[in-house]
Amino acid sequence: MTLLSVSGLDVHHGQLRAVSGFDISVEEGQTIGVIGANGAGKSTLLRTIAGILIPSAGTISIDGVDVTRMSAHQRVRHGVGLVPEGRRLFPSLTVEENLLSGAYLRKEGPWSLDAVFDLFPWMPERRAQSSAHLSGGEQQSVAIGRALMTNPRMLLIDELSLGLAPVVVRRMYEALPRIVANGCSILLVEQDVSQALAVADHVHCLLEGRTVLSGRPTDLGRADIETAYFGIDAPAEAG
Amino acid sequence: MDLLNAVLQGLLLGGLYALFATGLSIMFGVMRIVNLAHGDLAVVASFLALALVTNTFLPLWAVVLVAIPIFSVLGYALQRTLIQRSLGAGPLATLLVTFGLSIVLQNVLLESFSADTRTLEAGSFATSAIELNDTISLSYIGLFGLVAAVVTIVAIQLFVSRTRTGRMMRAASDDPETASVVGASPAHIYGIATAIAFATVALAGLIFSMRSSFDPSIGPSRLLFAFEAVVIGGLGSLWGTLLGGLALGLTQSVVSHYDPASAVLAGHLVFLAVLAFRPQGLIPARAV
Predict the structure, then answer these.
(1) Which chain A residues in 23-62 lie under 8 Å from chain B, judged by CB atoms?
(2) Which chain B residues are within 8 Å of A102, Cβ to Cβ?
(3) How far apart are CA A176 and CA A198, in angstroms?
């Protein structure tokens, strides 16, 4: 069953068209990756689906409900959760308070403070600490936990690996299957192509706001992805 | 002994300044707005009470209980209609909007109540005092102001640190956009903050009007005291505002003991000294 359906999405930043004619559909329980270089429009896309940016054309629907005209906080009620680029934790709140801010709407679902603590076992003993004093990986975990506390059905993750050490990135990615297992679909935006390919059921490659390549990771050749990622018409010879 | 009296009277006055400055501090702490109509709103509360006392049979304490919720609703509505629209346009826009509001309020009061100086008759409550000895007596109204300030500030602190909405108020103050992606409407949260601020300004305005006379144009000069209390204590910190109000009241009262004409000036000098040597204030902010 289709959970998220986006069609004909155009997003403008002033004169610049950041996303154009984007279509995607995410089934329940799927993990979809959107890859692309810097400035390809990936973050713009996620921020538009979350309701922060207003599209100039196209529709977004969640579980058959058209949410295109809804503001970000109304979409949370319909099950959209966002892990924003750069974490965006609330600096004056503690770790626990940051997590609890996700429970503001008190939506029913599998995620609670205990469930998040179970996913990230280091958290309970540092729950009273200010979120400003965490490492990048810890902040990312809190940002994921906060989004999960809204009990989303469609989790949008913007640049999970950004600025993190490879070992930390691996640990972050290990958490994703458990999130999906709790009945949540994931739309993941990522610059790190190999991570996205490893975890996604389906990937879209974005170039200058358009989907230039999409398919199952196993069906896509490395050369095709490189071409799509960098936008080179004639790929260089292998080697 | 006279000096001790001056100190005690200063603390009572300072408590009222702190209560009055609380609303200004909240609106700055949560929304980064300097509400230039703050003083005029207190005067509006005074006139509202005057109108209620003269035109209805409500006793004064009932008027206080009625005026505070009216102001909360007014605050919420004003935030959602006027202030929220100007927030997106930068800090200058909110200054201009509240400055405009200040002028409108003063003129509406002038039009409806004339420029006469008024007093709110509070009966024995305004004139009675606890006499500690021959030289020291603490007025009920002064004690009420100080107690109201401490209770209000403690209650608001508990609200922002313990409750779901209070927590979101701090979060929305940090980052309204991210607050919206966890499901809170920043405009609604800001509306609640403004409602709380307006409730405190109504209470302070009512106590002011029981202590001294008022007229439609007195708002801006009162705003100055609130502004000084907030800056002395530290922008965005409520405990700081309490301390700042007490410091200001204390300074004015003690100086007035030696030279009444210099009292207000001395308060301004303390304010300037804090700005020059400790611009972060006595208790720097953490959020709200």
Answers:
(1) 50-52
(2) 182-183
(3) 12
Residue B1 pLDDT level (bands cut at 50, 70, 90): low
Q: Does the pLDDT value for residue A238 go beyond 50?
A: no
> At which residue do the structure tokens 């196209």 appear?
A58
**CA A66/CA B191 separation, integer angstroms:** 28
Give pLDDT, residue A233. Answer: 62
Under 8 Å between Cβ of B269 and B259:
no
Distance CA A18, CA A54 (A): 12
How many A×B Cβ pairs under 8 Å?
A: 75
Q: Please state at what angle helix A136-149 crosses helix A166-181, rounded to 10 degrees.
A: 10
Residue ranges covered by each domain of chain A: 2-230
Q: Is B32 on the interface with A (CB under 8 A)?
A: no
| Radius of gyration of chain A measured on its C-alpha atoms | 18
Residue B214, class by beta-carbon neighbours within 10 Å (0-12 exposed, 13-18 middle, 19+ buried)?
buried
Q: Using alpha carbons, list the distances in angstroms from residue B44 to A40, B49, B106, B109, B227.
A: 54, 9, 8, 7, 18
DSSP state of A94: B
Nearest to B219 by CA among B100, B101, B68, B42: B42
End-to-end CA distance of chain A: 42
**Dist CA A164 CA A169 (whole Å):** 6
* Nearest-CA distance B21 → chain A (Å): 23
CA B246/CA B137 separation, integer angstroms: 18
Element (H, E) at A61: strand A57-62
Place of tokens 């809804």: A70
Question: Per the CB < 8 Å rule, is A100 touching B180?
Answer: no
Report the topology of domain A2-230: Rossmann fold (3.40.50)
Please give the helix or strand (H or E) that residue A158 lies within, else none: strand A154-158
pLDDT tens digits, A221-236: 788 888 888 877 654 5
| Ramachandran sector of residue A86 (left: φ over 0; alpha: ψ -120 to 50; beta: rest) | left
pLDDT, tens digit, for every residue of A41-65? 899 999 999 999 999 999 999 999 9
Q: Which amino acid is at A160?
A: L
With beta carbons less than 8 A apart as the criterion, state whether A42 and A189 touch.
yes
Question: Model's pTM, two decimal places?
Answer: 0.92
Amino acid at A73: H
What is the Cα Rg of chain B in Å? 19
Cα separation values, A144 from A23, A189, B7, B270, B276, Å:
25, 14, 54, 47, 43
Domain boundaries, chain B: 2-277
Pick from B43, B182, B56, B190: which is nearest to B118 by CA? B43
B163 reaches A (C-beta below 8 A): no
CATH class of the domain defined by B2-277: mainly alpha
